[in-house]
UniProtKB/TrEMBL annotation:
The gene is rapZ. GTP binds at residues 60-63. It comes from Blautia faecicola. Residues 165-284 form the RapZ C-terminal domain. The keyword Nucleotide-binding applies. It holds the Pfam family PapZ_C. InterPro entries: P-loop_NTPase (IPR027417), RapZ-like (IPR005337), RapZ-like_N (IPR053930), RapZ_C (IPR053931). This is RNase adapter RapZ.
């Protein structure tokens, strides 16, 4: 029997996670009142005929009752002999606010007030669950398919959990520095393929461009030093409890040099079993879009 308690911040993806687990064969129950947690656990242990072997239970501030009663409820579940795991879905406050504004939904603790106040109160009420979570997933930068991949690793394939997710992000300085960056590196000192006619329409994802950039000794030295520094920082971030790290690499337009170095750093990092890593090229196609708009005008 595998019993997973899915919890976390409203808007961080709990409903999506439950749907993913349901598709994976889990018997899912969402928004169960806290006073019923113990009775539900007893049913799973005593009333289940054996047909249900995987259960996911959604618990959050919508569950009613005093969230401080969760600690007592979980202790009662332990006394039934049922082992459980806690999956906590989180996201940055700015991301949660944006999601609520986009969907025009009301935060369950905000009422007619500001969403930020509801988020602050929710973090306070969920503090115990986060501190005792077996898995913390930060969905701030995760696409639905990436969230599914992480859940499949943990709850379907039983692979080791990587609590730190690293995003290697390329960008163009002329479009602004990504606001969620933890580390920002400027590679505008490297030779620019933009000034080579045959390379200008290509990107760092194309071999001629990446070869041009990496054939420069400064690029190779920079990559070695960058990979060495990031590798040094990662275990310290993990020890601190950080679960999301965004490493941003920028050039002028975010199409050639930054894409090449981001890809190279990603290749250095992706083999580790200590953390997860993903790559994103934020501005790789923006020059083409701007050119097309100018032609239309």
């Amino acid at each position: 029997m595998r019993f997973v308690i899915v919890t976390g911040m409203s808007g961080a993806g709990k409903s999506t996670a439950l749907k993913i687990l349901e598709d994976a064969g889990y018997f899912c129950v969402d928004n169960l009142p806290i006073p019923l947690l113990e009775k539900f656990a007893q049913f799973i242990v005593e009333g289940n005929s054996g047909s249900i072997q995987k259960v996911a239970l959604g618990v959050d501030v919508r569950s009613g009752g005093d969230m401080e009663g969760v600690e007592k409820a979980l202790e009662e579940i332990r006394l039934t002999g049922l082992e459980y795991e806690i999956l906590y879905l989180d996201a940055e406050d700015e991301v949660l606010v944006k999601r609520y504004k986009e969907t025009r939904r009301t935060h369950p603790l905000a009422g007619s007030g500001r969403v930020e106040n509801g988020i602050r109160e929710e973090r306070r009420r969920l503090k115990y669950l986060k501190e005792h979570a077996d898995y913390i997933l930060d969905s701030s930068q995760l696409l639905t398919r990436e969230l599914k991949a992480e859940l499949d690793k943990i709850f379907v394939k039983n692979m080791g959990f990587k609590n730190l997710m690293i995003t290697v992000l390329s960008f163009g300085f002329k479009y602004g520095i990504p606001s969620d960056s933890d580390l920002v590196f400027d590679v505008r000192f490297l030779p620019n393929p933009y000034y080579i006619d045959e390379l200008r329409p290509l990107s760092g994802n194309d071999k001629p461009v990446s070869d041009y950039v990496m054939n420069c000794e400064a690029s190779r030295i920079f990559l070695d030093k960058l990979a060495d520094m990031v590798s040094f920082l990662i275990p310290n971030y993990i020890q601190e409890g950080k679960n999301q790290l965004v490493v941003s690499i920028g050039c002028t337009g975010g199409k050639h040099r930054s894409v090449t170095l981001a890809n190279a750093l990603y290749q250095r990092l992706e083999q580790s079993e200590e953390y997860g890593v993903r790559i994103e090229h934020r501005d790789i196609g923006k020059d083409a879009i701007r050119k097309k708009m100018n032609e239309v005008r």
